[in-house]
């Protein structure tokens, strides 16, 4: 994967969401059947899903912090208008800047 995980797409997050979803289904089914112990069991499963997510995150399966690279910082400056875009150099005195060979990519 490009920069590890983004937007919570990590094994820890997916595992927690799956367990919480199962707990919700169990609790909902027992709510319809009017079985209070089943509803409590669903709540316990939901709590275990949250705990499992935190444990997996602690084990290193959560979202990693990705430091901002120099390229991201440079792109942000160009968007803000505080720097020249890459590939554009100032020409000789009194001439317009000419673009260098353009590169394709990010």
From TrEMBL:
A UniProt-annotated Pfam family: DUF6704
Taxonomic superkingdom: Bacteria
InterPro entries, sorted: DUF6704
Record's protein name: HGxxPAAW family protein
Keywords: Membrane, Transmembrane, Transmembrane helix
Region (Disordered): 83-106
Transmembrane segments: 12-33, 39-56
């Amino acid at each position: 994967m490009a920069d590890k995980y983004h937007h919570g797409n990590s094994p820890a997050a997916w595992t927690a969401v799956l367990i919480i979803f199962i707990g919700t289904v169990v609790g909902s089914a027992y709510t319809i059947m009017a079985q209070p112990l089943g509803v409590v069991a669903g709540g316990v499963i939901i709590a275990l899903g949250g705990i499992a997510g935190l444990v997996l995150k602690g084990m290193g399966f959560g979202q990693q912090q990705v430091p901002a690279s120099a390229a991201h910082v440079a792109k942000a400056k160009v968007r803000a208008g505080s720097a020249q875009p890459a590939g554009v150099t100032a020409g000789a005195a009194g001439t317009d800047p000419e673009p260098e060979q353009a590169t394709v990519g990010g």
